[in-house]
Design brief:
about 140 residues, 6 helices
């Protein structure tokens, strides 16, 4: 098995772990939490975030390490495609959120957590971007674009 294939396997598993979690949070947990009274909703979000954020950080780190390593191994015509750029954008957005914004408690300080619609909307936009990156990457890697 080549280095690239090992990296690809780790990368795909990391993305499934990471974006699968984002999908669950965005489509199931946040809508459920949004039906709770404000204080309860915020407490549940904080409790869940504490458990999920560390898993997401590991998955995002693994996806980033393997993704950027694979990027150095692919030919230039593949490396400079829109879908690779979208994957990198999604990774950077989530990395900033997980490693900068959340540890500094910026969502709470900016009032995003207190506004359930805004909080859900931000998650939904990030999820759509992530899913578009996955679709683009899968089709693009197979020569579909």
């Amino acid at each position: 098995m080549t280095t690239f294939n090992i990296l690809l396997a780790i990368h795909v598993l990391s993305v499934v772990w990471w974006i699968g979690g984002v999908f669950t949070v965005t489509t199931s947990l946040l809508p459920l939490f949004n039906h709770l009274p404000a204080d309860d909703r915020i407490q549940w979000i904080k409790r869940f975030e504490g458990r999920f954020a560390n898993q997401a950080r590991i998955a995002v780190l693994l996806a980033g390490i393997t993704g950027f390593w694979m990027y150095t191994l692919v030919p230039g015509e593949i490396a400079h495609t829109w879908w690779i750029g979208l994957m990198m954008l999604v990774w950077v957005l989530f990395a900033i959120m997980l490693f900068v914004a959340e540890p500094l408690r910026l969502p709470a300080k900016l009032g995003v957590i207190q506004n359930p619609r805004k909080f859900l909307a931000i998650h939904a936009v990030l999820l759509v971007l992530a899913l578009a990156a996955i679709v683009g990457g899968v089709i693009g890697a197979r020569g579909g674009f």
